[in-house]
Amino acid sequence: MNYLAEHFKLIYLVVVAGLLLLSWYFMRKAQYDERRKNRYGIKSIKRNIRIYRKRLENEEFDLFFKKNGLPKWITSERLNLVRFSILIGVLVIVIYGLITRTNYIDITTLFLWGIIPIALTPKKPYPMHFIVMMFQKKRQNEISNEIYQLYNDLKSAYQVGDKPKSSYYLIQEALPYFKVIRPSLEKMLPLLEVKNNGVAWDQFANELNTKEAETLGVVMKEVESLKTEQAYLLLEQKRREFSNDLYNRYTEILRKRKSIIYVLVVVGALTVFLNEVTVFFMWYKEVMAVVNQMG
Q: Reduced to 3 states, what is the DSSP secondary structure of residue 43?
């Protein structure tokens, strides 16, 4: 009985909501006829689901995800579904708490959950944008490393005296050794097979969307028209430039990491020092209080 008395408002709301739902159901049932049968059929439900899923899609978000190399399962539809689900959940908790005058969750936690849908917006200046850019930077580093390996493979093919195989066979033989750029290389093969090399390398550069991929595409289009020795020298020259660029980039990364570590160490040292100062100040305050009492 005490439980019923304490939760009377909640039970009352649930009962009223149930009665209203039943009333609505029987009213709809009374108005039901054959002409409305298709409206509530399985096909109609599936069609409505497709419509609502379409509304969750955002072409701008999908293009942003694809351009920055995110996994295919990350789509605007799923992201927006998560965002709206969290937002609806927060609103339900707030409204329910206002009705029952009960705090089911503290204000800090509620605020944190409330800003998640906003933070997940993949635009500047929201955190999701910078998370994607971090992922994109990691992907670009992986692409750069594999393109450098591809430079070495192609250079080795032109290193021998005889004329090397066509680009189609060179890329086909190199495929098993690549992971990140492999899908882009596979898309090139049909074009390389029909000797449409210029379009193939342009597609490769556009697909990966990096400076290194664009440079390799330009070099390979030029290599096709050169003699074996000249092609080898050109590839070796670009490989060295690429190697120097990778070295400088890696040095810059190490420098930034060193700066971050230095800042963390300084902050940690200051924290320890301030703790000691605080302890000394409290001890000095107590000593002075005792001295004053004795005086």
A: helix
